[in-house]
Amino acid sequence: MTDALSSGRRFRTLNIVDDYTRECLAIEVDTWLGGVRVVRVLEELKQRRGTRQIRYASGSEFYGDYGHQLLDENYGPLLPVSTYGASKLAGESIICAYCHMFG
Question: Does 69 score more than 80 pLDDT?
Answer without folding.
Answer: no
